């Protein structure tokens, strides 16, 4: 059974409700879609006035495409940068279906580099866009393979066999200090300069995105998140929620709610994708309830 199809970029403001990508939107004569269950949502948080995060979630018969972008820059330029990045990357990758193909890495790299050049050009020609930029974490996912393009400090995690791994590596000042053994990951998360990034879309005329791929398996759960989530909810709790086997919508809602309860200092974006068995139906049974948050103090 086809599970979802949704071919447009999404950007939500304020406290908009969760977007549900699990309705079957294709007709029976079309090819069955890749079997993924997805929920995606962005929230302004509790401090910021605007939302500079953008996201994209779509799928065709062969693979899903998911993007989180976290913009920066004054006078709403961050919104422009993240929106441009998401639209350009999703457009350029819309017909990339063979994730193991010989040119797949180059296609992903080029999509991010082209987006970079377009955003950078506007920072040079439009006075109010000076200094704008955006992270991009893009995931292409079939039932057997994932392919990631990444620049900045948004993150993609993979939960498999009860364990969570961060697939992307932050391009940030504090990550460099973690690599040098000067900070632990937890110290980095709470560091006052944790939001200083060393690479992003729009920063320079050329950027070098990270592009890598790997095997995907039935049961895998992927999370794409902006730092408004990962800075507010620690990895242990994120893992606990992703392991709950609840529907992606419920996990996304719980993640965003907890980021807000913990302060909501920044815009919060979460995309949860689960690789389903082929015979799964779109009722995606809820096996275990969401575990309660730890109490503090
Ligand atoms: Ca952010």
Overall tally of structural domains = 1
Q: Measure the end-to-end span.
A: 47 Å
What is the CATH topology? Phosphatase 2c, domain 1
CATH classification, class level: Alpha Beta
Mean pLDDT: 87
Q: Find the structural class using helix and strand composition.
A: alpha+beta
* Portion in helices: 25-40%
List the helices and strands and how they pair.
Blueprint: E1 8-10, E2 19-20, E3 36-43, E4 53-59, E5 64-72, H1 77-92, H2 104-125, E6 133-134, E7 136-141, E8 145-151, E9 155-160, E10 163-166, H3 173-179, H4 185-190, E11 210-215, E12 221-225, H5 227-230, H6 235-242, H7 248-261, E13 268-275
Antiparallel strand pairs: 1-4, 2-3, 3-13, 4-5, 5-6, 5-7, 7-8, 8-11, 9-10, 9-12, 12-13
Helix pairs in contact: 1-2
The structure holds calcium ion (CA).
What can be said about this structure in brief?
With 297 residues, the protein is of the alpha+beta class. Helices cover 26% and strands 25% of the residues.
Account of the protein in words:
With 297 residues, the protein is of the alpha+beta class. The chain has one domain: PPM-type phosphatase domain (Phosphatase 2c, domain 1, 4-Layer Sandwich), CATH 3.60.40. 26% of the residues lie in helices and 25% in strands. Helix 1 runs antiparallel to helix 2 (104-125). The model is unreliable at 1-30 (pLDDT under 50). Bound molecules: calcium ion (CA). Residues 70, 226-228, 266-267 line the site of calcium ion.
